[in-house]
Amino acid sequence: xxxxxxxxxxxxxxxxxxxxxxxxxxxxxxxxxVSLADIVGAVTRALSGRGGSGANDALVLGLRIPRVxxxxxxxxxxxxxxxxYQALFKNAxxxxxxxxxxxxxxxxxxxxxxxxxxGAIAAVLVPASAFVGATLTMMLVxxxxxxxxxxxxxxxLLAGVAVSxxxxxxTSFAMVMRRETMARIVFWxxxxxxxxxxxxxxxxGVMLVAGLSLPLxxxxxxxxxxxxxxxxxxxxxxxxxxxxxxxASASLMVAAAVxxxxxIGFVGLMTPHMTRLVLGPRHRLLLPASVIAGAIVxxxxxxxxxxxxxxxxxxxxxxxxxxxxxxxxxxxxxxxxRSL
Length: 340
Description:
This protein is an all-alpha fold and about 350 residues long. The chain has helices spanning about 5-30, 35-50, 55-90, 100-115, 120-145, 155-175, 180-190, 200-215, 220-225, 230-235, 240-260, 265-280, 285-305, 315-340; strands spanning about 145, 150. Helix 3 (about 55-90) crosses helix 13 and helix 4 runs parallel beside helix 6 (about 155-175).
């Protein structure tokens, strides 16, 4: 295998090993540590159909593994959406949270929760409402930021911030109107995975696969779109149709993440950018590597949120914001230097 081809393979392998390690740590550590032997025993008994009834089995199978799996899926969704937005807008600062897409998905999810979505109904209604909110928000931000067929970085960011504030106000209004659900929704909006269940894991997993399928199949077109709309059209890409497909795929993944974990910022900004620095811009490698890296980041962020003040648990959105804020400032300064 040529040396140039070996490096991406090693990076993907390294990320996969790191994800396995992060998952094991996420299951093992918490307010109540669980040994590796107990984890293996619980999983083995579950797979063999013997299903232990001990406290460790209930903790591992009923709480820790669904939560860690949910964290990995949420991180993968946000990072995958970040890659697509950054490619579509040709902007390293594009991110579901900064563009207001997360706020739109959050408003849709809050409306579904405020209207009484619970149980099996919530597992379908909340993600569906979040998807509608995310899609409409992205369309609005793009329309505001586009002038004479051109979209500038500053206009895109300002439009995202303005729309986010407006949607946050509407979300607050919805909570005030349904005060009995306010405390639950406020804590959910801070970002957290306390409500993780196998049912939600299945729903988010399906939405992640659906959101990634077409972009992975059209990774060459994602590379071409970076050359500009005119050049991409000359190379045979139906730009408008392709943009709609990418927006729908990204919005589906954002909706999946927000509907179960609330508003979690900067994962879709940090992870794709750092992965791009290592692997370059080719989306055939960048997209799957970023998805794995996003899963790692989210699992570790959730682990930190659970153990740093144990038994008190921090909202994971606080952890990602503290880590992502400085990265966003650095990227903004880097983009400014490039434009000079």
